[in-house]
Specification:
Strand order of the largest sheet: 1-2-3
CATH class: Alpha Beta
Number of strands: 3
Radius of gyration: 13 Å
Shape: globular
Largest sheet: 3 strands, antiparallel
Number of domains: 1
Structural class: alpha+beta
Strand content: 15-25%
Length: 121
């Protein structure tokens, strides 16, 4: 069983969907292993003002995506890129060791979305 924060973000994920004409899009995960996250970001005045995700996978993968989408709001692209899997795990009050692989998706998707934004500029 997962803790209450993970279950809350799994059952009521935040920021689900896509952003039309997003400033950056990042994909992370592995469809063959079952978890994939697509993260969309919109940036104004060097701050992430909107983040949405589409996630396919386990309860933890969905919770990780939901939490990560909240964690990057208001941050600069550089600040967002410094978010680690440990930061996401801590925000979710700990992820079971056998599911920590899911927490890798968030920093990778954030990094990819920011890189996409920087390449488009």
């Amino acid at each position: 069983m997962y803790n209450a924060i993970i279950m809350e973000h799994f059952q009521n994920p935040r920021n689900v969907g896509e952003i039309n004409h997003a400033d950056g899009v990042g994909i992370a995960g592995n469809a063959e292993k079952g978890d994939v996250m697509k993260l969309y970001i919109r940036i104004e005045s060097d701050r992430i003002v909107e983040a949405k995700h589409q996630t396919f996978g386990s309860a933890v993968a969905i919770a990780v995506s939901s939490m990560a989408s909240l964690m990057i709001l208001g941050k600069s692209p550089d600040e967002a890129r410094r978010i680690t899997r440990e930061d996401v795990s801590a925000a979710l009050d700990g992820i079971p060791p056998d599911k920590m692989i899911c927490s890798n998706m968030a920093p990778e998707a954030i990094q990819n979305a920011v890189n996409d934004y920087l390449m488009k500029r």
